[in-house]
Amino acid sequence: MAHRELTSDVSDGKDEWERKERLVQVMSKDPAFDKRGREWMTRTEKYSRGLRMINRMYDLENTLGWNRQDTTVATGLLDESLPISLHVTAFEPVFLLQASPELLDRYAALTATRGIFGCYLQTELGHGSNVASLETTATYIPGTKEFDIHSPTLSSSKWWIGALGKTATHGVVQAKLILPGGEDMGPHLFFVQLRSLETHKLLPGITAGDIGPKAFDGTPANDNGFARFNHVRIPKEHMLSKFAQVTDDGKYVKPPHAKISYGGVGVYVFILPTSDLTSPLFCRRRCCISVHRWLPPLGGSQQETNKQYNTAAVIAIRYATVRRQGTKGHDGLEKQVISYPSLHTRLLPILSRAYVYIGMGRALSRSFQTMAQRLSTGDASLLAELHAVTSGLKVLCTTSSVQDLENARRSMGGHGYGAFSGIGKVYADMVPSVTYEGENFVLDQQAVRAALKAFKNLFGDDGKSRPSSSTLQNLPPSTYYLRLLIDSKEPPVLHDASNNSHPPASSSSSSWNDPETLILLLEWRAALLVHEMAQTVEDPDATIYQRVSKGTTEAFVARRVGEMISGLRANSELKKQDVGVLGRLYLLFLQTTVESALSDLLSFSLLRIQNPSRIGASRDPTRGLRMAIAKNCLALLPEAIGLTDALGFSDWELDSALGVYDGRVYQALWDRAQLEPLNAKEVPDAYEVGHLDSLLFARS
Ligand SMILES: Cc1cc2nc3c(=O)[nH]c(=O)nc-3n(C[C@H](O)[C@H](O)[C@H](O)COP(=O)(O)OP(=O)(O)OC[C@H]3O[C@@H](n4cnc5c(N)ncnc54)[C@H](O)[C@@H]3O)c2cc1C
């Protein structure tokens, strides 16, 4: 595989690839970004190191003349969650898009130059997903034209807020707006100064700090924090009032549209009236930010995001290729562990997902651009579609990446458990992604709600209406699968899954290698799941929400993968051989997605038992699929290293003894173990002070 051409393709073009190479050259040699020895640092040292890295990055921006995109990519190259990311991805966009012109005049420039450093304070000790029940209050006082920000209870303490613990000087606070007459208008956003710009001390009335270490010691350089407000006064202008406002005498001014939404560059912020806080729309801002982080090219390049996912594939496949274990062959060498089917059938699907999510990011990026253009002309018609898509994708991407990281780690045996494998740290940092920016099980409900709404729009509340042909033609990508439920002759009859006219799959081996068959199967599964949900919505079974969310999102993704496969043929930048390899990889994605959907496919009788009357033959209707996966993995095996190299990681970025480019993993492990502080002294201090001494003595 000619991975250089592919690298450029994966990196969103040659220019992006060259940008990344240029930045890696600089950063990997700069002592500020030296990763050696960080395993031994305390939490406090890691936090300080994080701040040093941010400072150095902006020094480099100035001295080397980096543009904003260079700095964004450089930030993405750092494999650490740093307080700056909250300033850039959460605080700044919300502030810029929702602050009044007067507030922008005073603070926009300071925000851009980090004269002030922000965080986003929504979650409280007592409430996360249920934003409508947040307790922090912002009471308007007409006499002084101020808001009084107050935390009335312990459970109203802001909690989990990234960069709040020790770093941020300002924050956007989500608080219930209380009018002078005591009327509660529900959560609104307020711009609050937290710390002095001279001394960095907390302002009067504010109690704040770091919430402490996180599970698996994840994101140690990020100071997720708590805060309580004791009647803190802020000027009236500090309400983020581009849309909803309060008049000087304390009257509420509603946003101009019932569900006003606003799109910005890179991150999309959606503002809703308070009555909508629990509606599906409320989640938009959060899930779109998630997708921004999770689907690579949305921010402009592959380097800045999602590399955690790709990291798992690269490290595990490189290691499995050099690791030998088992009986010796004719060449006198033990087998490469990647040659074991139980290993490569685990790892190659991870690689296929890494590639597919890069392509998905690109597709979604284009959709966001279209939406932004339409929004600028007042056309909000794409919002609901993108909301549906991003809700489901956030769940799908984060859930699968966390699982894949752990699978990749386990594939490396004992060495996978060592910190030097590089995967444990990534896992620890990534595992909360299933919780923040929309808890996945809560977001499932958003995806389901959107699917049910589309179903009802087509078939009516009773499921008996017949959609017009123009409605069908205009089905958006997120619900394209619903077309399958239409019987053109006898409207609105839904196909019976046992009807011979469908489903599309016969289980011959060729059909399992046909992308269109696999896509259709996934679309049928989505359509039947949504139909099932619509019939049983009053009495849902234990897992229907998760299955509908997953099923509909996977149908959407599968159709996009079909487009990626067609697009390969038209891609003149790629060599013919690479087109073939990528086609196989995408096919593997579809095959393994179908395999993971088998319980649904079998539930809906979408697969028929083979040779029902023949004794001695396989009766398993899924065997053909699993055989096709096994063969496809074998065919891809020689390409695995080329495909991982094409993801374009340097050793500095990976920071993994097991994933080193030259394959000298034992040397790398050995060298790193020598750095262990316990090894600094032949006889440890514990012996000198008597602990070890008495332990050994007791044994003898
Ligand atoms: C690393 C990290 C960084 C974060 N950074 C920030 C930040 O910068 N700013 C900020 O404001 N917040 C931040 N958060 C908080 C985050 O947004 C919340 O944790 C998240 O919204 C989930 O809320 P919760 O933790 O209260 O969980 P809960 O809402 O209490 O959920 C607990 C369980 O209940 C289930 N559940 C809840 N509601 C429903 C429902 N309606 N239906 C079915 N099941 C339900 C959930 O699925 C979950 O299993 C961060 C969190 C983490 C872990």
Automatic annotation (TrEMBL):
Domain Acyl-CoA oxidase C-terminal: 514-688
GO molecular function, one term: acyl-CoA oxidase activity
Residues involved in FAD binding: T123, G162
Subcellular location as annotated: Peroxisome
Main location class: other
Protein name (record): Acyl-coenzyme A oxidase
GO terms classed as biological process: fatty acid beta-oxidation using acyl-CoA oxidase; lipid homeostasis
Keywords for this protein: FAD, Fatty acid metabolism, Flavoprotein, Lipid metabolism, Oxidoreductase, Peroxisome
Cofactor: FAD
Entries under InterPro entries matching the protein: ACOX_C_alpha1 (IPR055060), Acyl-CoA_ox_N (IPR029320), Acyl-CoA_Oxase/DH_mid-dom_sf (IPR046373), Acyl-CoA_oxidase (IPR012258), Acyl-CoA_oxidase_C (IPR002655), AcylCo_DH-like_C (IPR036250), AcylCoA_DH/ox_N_sf (IPR037069), AcylCoA_DH/oxidase_NM_dom_sf (IPR009100)
Annotated region (Disordered), positions in chain: 493-513
Domain of life where this protein originates: Eukaryota
Entry's family note: Belongs to the acyl-CoA oxidase family.
Organism (species): Collybiopsis confluens
Residues annotated as the enzyme's active site: E437
Domain Acyl-coenzyme A oxidase N-terminal: from-to ranges: 4-102
GO cellular component: peroxisome
Lineage per the UniProt record: Eukaryota, Fungi, Dikarya, Basidiomycota, Agaricomycotina
Chain ranges of the Acyl-CoA oxidase C-alpha1 domain: 305-451
Biased composition (Low complexity): 497-511
